[in-house]
What we know:
The chain is an all-alpha fold. Helices cover 86% and strands 0% of the residues.
Amino acid sequence: MLKPAVQKKIKTIFYSVIVFLIAVTVILTGATFTDLNVYWYVSLNKPFHPPYWIHVVAWMIIFILITISAIIILSEKEKRKSKCPFALPLYLINAFLVPLYSVLFFGFRAANLAFIETIFTLAAILLLIWCNYKISKTAAYLLMPYLLWICYSVFLNAMIIFAN
Length: 164
């Protein structure tokens, strides 16, 4: 029988690997749909368009921060159960919504639906931050770049809709 401290470390490593694999799956799903119609996106009228590499770097940083945040929340089992038992489902909802944007916007070329989806994503992020704040302020603060990026995405998507 392993000591409780060793069991806790093994659980933390296991959960970290699971969170990492979920993050990679989300990234690959979104990237696949983005790549399918990237030429369509390039052809759209856009009031402004930052270089593609900025999106890649931003999302990589955001996914690293989300992963760290989720691991913190996973490690706070007692606080999570008492202060916000739906923290983990909120992470999964966000993991579903992020690639859904790429499916709608790039896969179906439906900027209007993708815009609506970003509003739902924004609400889900706000709920996640609120929930995390009750458990770990650090975990909540790590999600701020994600919140800001989605706000930027809402704005950019709205500009694309109006310009096209």
